[in-house]
Design a protein that fits this description.
Blueprint lengths: L1 H8 L7 H16 L11 H9 L14 E6 L5 E4 L2 E4 L8 E6 L3 E6 L2 E7 L6 E2 L7 H7 L3 H9 L3 H10 L9 H14 L1 H13 L5 H10 L31 H6 L2 H6 L4 E4 L5 E9 L2 E9 L2
Parallel strand pairs: 3-7
Antiparallel strand pairs: 1-4, 2-3, 4-5, 5-6, 8-9, 9-10
Helix pairs in contact: 5-6, 5-7, 6-8, 7-8, 7-9, 8-9
């Protein structure tokens, strides 16, 4: 160390750690390794290559630095470690646990006693042991769709079919809440009304728990809905078809008959005081002539 301190560090100024490491490598290879060592009376680099290099073991992998932290067991019986979820026995719900997580395993301790071990999961992953969860919550926690459909089928065949239709989606676990709402309607109204409402909705190809709830609230699950007849009633401002007929009516023929035509004179011409002609259009009626307009030609 005294040799390194006096021959490498003394009088040197480094702007960064990378620069110091780079210059130390050059110093070891060109100066310190090639000098004549006082004790060996030989160059250290040559002695290392001839006698010591073959005795070295392979470089071990990088040390796996474990992660230590304290976590809380949430209501879903899971803890979060490095953005992944791990289940914990229900007896520790709400407790604080100590975690040791390395590359392979995640170990959970309660007051120094190991209570659970899981394989390490990537961020966003999940490791759940069914035995850690209560029986009534294991289906939801494990996203067990078949078990959920079977639970609905216990309350009625059409209820089970309706639940299966609700889960018919590319992402079925996003529709699980709708199925749980359907089960809530069973608990509120009973098996019979919900079975009848699901049967009616399946006949009409309506897949909506909101519609089922509306039918049960109005007690219309046994009522046959009125289907459209194909005819549309007239609108509020609709006109009668006769008003669009192009054939004139009798009154119109009377107004446009020969007598009416003879009573109408063509445009007459007169001369103004200035000497310019004026075009006048006059309509002759029974009560006297009416002048519609006059136009002076210049």
């Amino acid at each position: 160390m005294q040799y390194v301190r006096g021959n490498f560090w003394a009088g040197e100024v480094f702007t960064s750690l990378e620069e110091a490491q780079q210059r130390a490598t050059v110093w070891c290879a060109e100066r310190a390794g090639m000098r004549i060592h006082g004790t060996l009376q030989a160059r250290p680099a040559e002695v290392f290559d001839a006698h010591e290099a073959a005795c070295l073991l392979p470089i071990p992998p990088a040390y796996d630095v474990p992660v230590f932290k304290t976590v809380k067991v949430h209501r879903d019986f899971h803890v979060e470690v490095a953005r992944a979820l791990y289940s914990v026995p229900g007896a520790y719900l709400g407790h604080q646990l100590d975690v040791r997580a390395d590359r392979e395993l995640v170990k959970l301790y309660h007051r120094g006693r190991l209570v659970k071990t899981h394989p390490r999961q990537a961020p966003g992953g999940r490791s759940t042991d069914r035995a850690d969860l209560p029986a009534e919550r294991s289906g939801y926690a494990l996203r067990d769709l078949n078990r959920l459909i079977g639970t609905c089928a216990v309350h009625g065949e059409n209820v089970g079919i309706y639940a299966e239709r609700l889960l018919d989606d590319p992402l079925p676990w996003t529709r699980m809440r709708a199925v749980y709402r359907l089960l809530g309607l069973v608990r509120r109204y009973g098996n019979g009304p919900v079975e009848a409402a699901c049967s009616r909705a399946l006949d009409l190809d309506v897949v909506s728990v909101t519609k089922i709830a509306s039918m049960l609230e109005r007690a219309t699950e046994d009522t046959l809905p009125l289907l459209p007849t194909g005819t549309t009633p007239g609108g509020r401002f609709a006109r009668q078809p006769a008003e669009f007929a192009t054939r004139p009516t009798a009154s119109a023929r009377d107004r446009t008959g020969p007598a009416a035509i003879q009573a109408t004179t063509p445009a007459s011409h007169r001369t103004t005081a200035a000497g310019g002609p004026v075009a006048t259009l006059t309509l002759v009626r029974d009560d006297g002539p009416d002048t519609l307009f006059e136009q002076e030609h210049r």
